[in-house]
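Input chain follows. Return structure tokens only.
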Amino acid sequence: MSKTSTCAAVYVGTYAKYNQGSIAGAWLNLEDYSDKEAFISACEELHADEADPELMFQDWENIPEGMISECHIDQDVFSWLDLDEEERALLALYRSNVDSSGSMDDARDAYCGHVNTKEIYAEEMFTDCYNVPKELERYIDWGLVARDLEFDGYTFASSKGGYVVFRG
């Protein structure tokens, strides 16, 4: 499997092989399996040369933070695979910036939009929510307001030349 692929994939070896100095295994595309049980079954079949293979996930790509580790793959990965690309990107940003075990529902609930700059978000939020007199707007440092929003639970996650905003 190419490292430039965009599919969710895992390189599966075993601890026994690794301890003997071998990283023998294979890349498995998670989208080829309906659930965790089918994936684990394929992993065990791959390492059928061992009586009771202790699986080792040696590398992975395109899987959100917190859903996989060297010795564990979360059942949520297979629900995540059912999401479209936009939802996957949103959940990955949420998990890597806000809550590493958050669900898609958590990410949707916290999502406030995509903006080019933090300052623009702060200005739009305040001018939409409050009646800020035009003659005072030029005295407001929107960068400091954005910083305060971060102190108050907002997260600005870098994405596509701007930020995805989540409310904590």
